[in-house]
């Protein structure tokens, strides 16, 4: 992914794919069921349900207003970053037809949230934006020092509240549910899909044997760290082993076979760069 995003053609390809995914989530899953899960597209869905306004044109109008706000209150670099997406997303919404592909409303929200999360995560990966209601949180951050994540969540919740007046309480609950699902999936994607575990090992007697077994029999990254006991002030060695998820149980069993009293702590690792992997 890093090689693709570093090439200009690859970046534009990912940009187009990301916007297409967002448009698919709106036109095939959210809009047909009248669920507005935040953002400019959420406002557009509310406008379509209440007044019959086309989602693409409403999104375009909102994005233009947000661009004007960005020009006034934000710097040129930020405005330039959201400029292309502000026009490209409404174009995608206009190209991709709106249709109901799933009859069950809850299933539609779950699938739509997953697709939407992948699209937004891809935009973040290439430092791009679809514009719209991403602008107000940036303004709040600049002038009121409010975290952008908090500002974005606040805006999305305000938009979601519109469901109560347009589509009913059930749509509002589904919209909030969608925001939660999207956040979880985006967090998982952004922190890495190639997750591993870091295993820290200390042993009173068998540390040399554990090192030998890890080096010779197990295909893992091994680092020896000098540590000092907080109570005893005694200098010792601790092993740090980065291990694939599938090999974690095998590794711990191997260590405990050598030393049943070995002190082992484990931490999840979102991504590993470099090394032997």
UniProtKB/TrEMBL annotation:
It is found in: Cell membrane. It holds the Pfam family YitT_membrane. The keyword GTP-binding does not apply. Residues 220-274 form the DUF2179 domain. Keywords: Cell membrane, Membrane, Transmembrane, Transmembrane helix. InterPro entries: DUF2179 (IPR019264), N-reg_PII/ATP_PRibTrfase_C (IPR015867), UPF0750_membrane (IPR051461), YitT (IPR003740). Signal peptide: none annotated. GO terms for cellular component: plasma membrane. The chain crosses the membrane at residues 12-31, 51-74, 81-99, 105-124, 144-165, 171-189. The keyword Metal-binding does not apply. It is a multi-pass membrane protein. This is DUF2179 domain-containing protein. It comes from Schleiferilactobacillus perolens DSM 12744.
């Amino acid at each position: 992914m890093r090689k693709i995003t570093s090439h200009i053609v690859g970046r534009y390809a990912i940009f187009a794919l990301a916007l297409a995914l967002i448009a698919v989530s709106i036109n095939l899953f959210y809009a047909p069921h009248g669920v507005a899960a935040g953002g400019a597209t959420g406002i557009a869905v509310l406008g379509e349900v209440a007044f019959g306004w086309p989602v693409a044109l409403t999104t375009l109008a909102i994005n233009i207003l947000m661009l004007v706000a960005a020009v006034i209150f934000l710097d040129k670099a930020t405005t330039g970053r959201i400029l292309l997406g502000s026009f490209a997303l409404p174009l995608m919404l206009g190209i991709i037809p709106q249709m109901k592909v799933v009859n069950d409303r809850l299933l539609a929200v779950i699938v739509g949230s997953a697709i939407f999360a992948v699209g937004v995560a891809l935009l973040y990966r290439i430092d791009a934006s679809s514009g719209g209601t991403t602008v107000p949180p940036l303004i709040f951050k600049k002038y009121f020092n409010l975290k952008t994540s908090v500002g974005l969540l606040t805006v999305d919740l305000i938009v979601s509240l519109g469901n109560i007046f347009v589509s009913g309480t059930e749509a509002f609950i589904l919209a909030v549910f969608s925001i939660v699902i999207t956040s979880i999936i985006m967090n998982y994607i952004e922190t890495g899909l190639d997750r591993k575990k870091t295993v820290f090992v200390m042993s009173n007697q068998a540390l040399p044997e554990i090192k030998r077994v890890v080096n010779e029999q197990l295909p893992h990254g091994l680092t020896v760290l000098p540590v000092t006991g907080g109570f005893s002030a005694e200098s010792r060695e601790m092993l740090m082993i980065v291990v694939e998820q599938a090999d974690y149980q095998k590794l711990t069993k191997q260590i405990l076979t050598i030393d049943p009293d070995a002190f082992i702590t484990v931490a999840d690792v979102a991504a590993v760069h470099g090394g032997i992997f």
